[in-house]
Amino acid sequence: MEEKVTATSTNRLTTSSTQTNQPTPISHITVDIEKRLLTGIGEFDRVLGGGVVSGSLVLIGGDPGIGKSTLMLQALNGIACQGKTALYVSGEESVRQLAIRGRRLEKSDQNLLVAAEIDLAAINQMVSQTKPAAVVIDSIQTMFNDTLTAAPGTISQVRESALQLMLLAKQTGTPIFLVGHVTKDGAIAGPRVLEHMVDTVLYFEGDRNHIFRVLRAVKNRFGSTNEIGVFEMRDSGLAEISNPSALFLTERPAYAPGSVVTCSMEGTRPILVEIQALVGKSNYGTPRRTVLGLDHNRVALLSAVMEKQAGFDLAGQDLFMNVAGGVKILEPSVDLGIIAAIAASFLNKAVPPDMIILGEVGLTGEIRAVSQIEARLAEAQKMGFTRCVLPKGVAKRVTQSEPALQIETAGRLDAALELIF
What we know:
The protein is α/β, with parallel strands linked by helices. It is built from twelve helices and 18 strands.
């Protein structure tokens, strides 16, 4: 569908006349130590890289009902509780609805200002008058620029609105959070240029029918993209989880065939997760392969390695895999844990409950070393595990790091399965 665009600049923000467009040697630019703005939500600040950078533009996406607006309201309230003004602009809810939600969440500080507005010119005026420490736009798809004739939500409106808000953030030094809708595939709706314009892109993951939520950064100009924040949805809002490993392993069944504990590194944080597998005879011509929380192609690859290198007959078996807690694990260091879970269910044998399994598995059946093994083992020992099956390549690094753990190493898949069972 074609859209008529009026090329006017009456309401477009322009760069200040005091600024020069002449290039400057980078060594001549003075840079002060950046003091980040804290939201009071430790998990949120962690994902941002230690807090909010002034003048940054942050895009947060997620499925409907996942908790994006709740998280943003809590973050702004944390800023308001520090005595700073925070502005929440909603294009989807009235101020009365925002007030009802704020009271339900017990997030109603007097410094937290709310407004129901979609006109960018009016929002610009609000920011200049109130001079907030942070602004939330919920959502970018509802914003409207009267210099364009297109309807809100169209590609041209979303792109122009994001550009105007980016200029506003850079010129005033006010960090702005944009809440974005997502498509059926889970990507942020609108033009891809939207993700290139912003400084940080965050995704809020999890099933809205599940209590756990994971906040993940996929782009961050001011910090790592490997960090995650873990939250639990409660009646009073989102509660941060400081020890995700304990939460994910709370209801783990003991001596259950198909249940294996492994460790995944999410940024600088090791997280113990339970991988579950169920193998059963298929009643159809083509066996089913259902995978939740893991890479489907990776599981198919590992099952083929099991057939070729370890002699498991999985061709006529249905295979179902799940990561307990609703988290997604894409790290190859959990390969051996995946294989152990499948083998345990196939053989109907339980993996010892005090054992943790780590290792990347190659196509020829070799077990490769994993990174940050010391941090993983420290987390395993803290959670009460006493035995570890690891790749032979990390033996020298772990012999003295965790003396309380019984370390067993293997260089091949068949040797590792003998140690486990």
